[in-house]
């Protein structure tokens, strides 16, 4: 069931015109930046968007510009986990695993899990309770279990469904932000 839903939504997303992705992403950015969780966080982990995901490149640049610390994922392909790397500039990112822009590890730029206050989470599908379907590789599931940071999923409205099947170990989002609404998932 998850695989069918994943394929269907990825197909819709891939066929979105670039202009529409950017317009909707701008609305999502505006809503995200207005949230108390964002305003009060000094260190935020952002996913780096690719393949018509909600576009985070401008959000990352803007977050750095307003003086917050930004962390982005480096894929640990051996352990299927995320290594949180703090960046000072978007220019530090290079094409890495899976064709996604990633930071370069320099021996001293790993961010401690305790220092990350907010994680901006990608997903293919979310439900209104805050559960998500990702690409199925488990990187974010593993990482999110280890952090106490607030978790906010970014999605286009068509990526939100009323309910998806979830398992005991799945981690819920605190909120989901779409171009149309902010969904509070704490219920």
Gap from first CA to last CA: 24 Å
Report strand %. 15-25%
Radius of gyration based on Cα positions: 15 Å
For the record, the CATH class is Alpha Beta
CATH architecture: 3-Layer(aba) Sandwich
Poorly predicted sequence stretches spanning 5 or more consecutive residues: none
How many helices? 5
CATH topology name, in short, is Rossmann fold
The CATH superfamily appears as NagB/RpiA/CoA transferase-like
Mean pLDDT: 94
Give the total of domains.
1
Describe this structure in words.
This protein has 187 residues and is α/β, with parallel strands linked by helices. It has one domain (2-69, 111-181): Rossmann fold (3-Layer(aba) Sandwich). The chain contains five helices and twelve strands. It has helices spanning 2-14, 18-34, 36-39, 57-65, 139-146; strands at 43-46, 69-76, 81-87, 94-95, 101-102, 118-121, 125-127, 132-133, 150-154, 160-161, 175-177, 182-184. The strands form three sheets. It has a seven-stranded mixed sheet, sandwiched between helices. The longest helix is centred in the N-terminal third of the chain and has 17 residues, at 18-34. The radius of gyration is 15 Å and the shape is globular. The chain starts with a helix and ends with a strand.
Keywords:
single chain; 187 residues; alpha/beta; Rossmann fold; seven-stranded mixed beta sheet; three-stranded mixed beta sheet; 12 strands; globular
């Amino acid at each position: 069931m998850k695989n069918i839903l994943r394929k269907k939504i990825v197909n819709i997303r891939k066929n979105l015109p670039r202009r529409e992705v950017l317009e909707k992403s701008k609305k999502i950015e505006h809503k995200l930046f207005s949230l108390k969780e964002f305003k009060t966080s000094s260190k935020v982990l952002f996913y780096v968007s690719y393949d018509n995901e909600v576009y985070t490149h401008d959000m990352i640049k803007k977050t750095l510009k307003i003086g917050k610390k930004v962390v982005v994922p480096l894929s640990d392909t051996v352990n299927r986990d995320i290594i949180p790397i703090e960046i000072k500039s978007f220019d530090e990112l290079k094409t890495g695993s899976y064709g996604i822009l990633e930071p370069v590890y320099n021996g001293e730029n790993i961010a401690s899990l305790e220092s990350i206050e907010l994680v901006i989470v990608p997903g293919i599908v979310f439900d209104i309770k805050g559960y998500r379907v990702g690409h199925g590789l488990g990187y974010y599931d593993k990482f999110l279990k280890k952090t106490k940071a607030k978790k906010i999923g970014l999605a286009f409205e068509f990526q939100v469904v009323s309910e998806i099947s979830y398992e005991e170990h799945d981690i819920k989002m605190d909120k989901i932000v779409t171009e149309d609404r902010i969904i509070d998932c704490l219920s």
